[in-house]
Amino acid sequence: MTRGLDWFDAFREIAPDWSVVLLGLVTQLGDVWFLGLLVGTVYWTDRTDRDEAAAIVGIMLSGLSLITALKAAFALPRPERVLVEVGTLPELVRPLYEATTTATGYGFPSGHALMSTVVYLTLAEYWSVGTRRRRYLVATSVVIAVCFSRIGLGVHYFVDVVAGAGAGLAFLLLIRPLLDRYPTHRGTLAFAIAVGTATVALVVSEMTPDAVLLFGASLGAFAGWQFAVLARAREAGHGPIRTSRPLTARAIGVVLSIVVLVAVTTFFGPVSLAAQSIALGAVAATFVAVPVVYRSEQVRNRGRRSPTGLR
User: Fold this and answer.
1) What is the rounded distance in angstroms from the CA atom of residue 92 to the CA atom of residue 89?
2) In this predicted model, what pLDDT tens digit does every residue of 94-121 receive, in sequence order?
């Protein structure tokens, strides 16, 4: 069965050699490192609505687990072709070309297409920069550009990117009503969805290293967010934890997340991989909790220095 529909061959006939440089740069907009940097920056700098920022982080983690599960389930290969021969390019641009055209692993669906759709459309929905219409226009343009770059570089068939973008869109349409129904709990729900999706990826992929690491990151992020919400509740004067059922539930969630992460990874996986997953979970928990806890400490310290606080 062909998945290409001859789009790559038609593009190769008219594309100049230098176009690989442009395509290589564009495709980075859908790479994990760039999306992680973008979402992380939004989360740490956006203080207007931390729950929405947390939801963006959770949805990104869910997208990573979703593509891991889908690739393992379909197990279809990538194209065996390149846009240009690396030897014909100047030495300065060869590293970029090799990095973007030597993708490994399964090809269906496209991870860049799915992740771009999930992340950029989520940012368009929840990130309060500019108008909603402009955000969606920019997000759609970036997704299309990334999808085209994957076909143009020869690392995906046309059907791969369509399926990736379609799966990402379907996923958003499925979870967004739930997140919008409980706006004050968007962060918790998004991280819970991330944990659920990571669990599915763990099972479908039969405990591949990527799935195990994502499982650790998702559980860690969930625990970190529960800790952050507890810190925020303390700032607002709620508690103590033992007298509040919601706060008690969050505290239990932190402990259970740690227990489940250690138990699952050490029981089913190699010790080295379990250690990496646990370490990544600790990093994710710290990353999610620190800005909220730090903000809470600042607010509390200002309260102590104010006349009201002195009384």
Assistant:
1) 8
2) 666 666 666 677 888 999 999 999 999 9
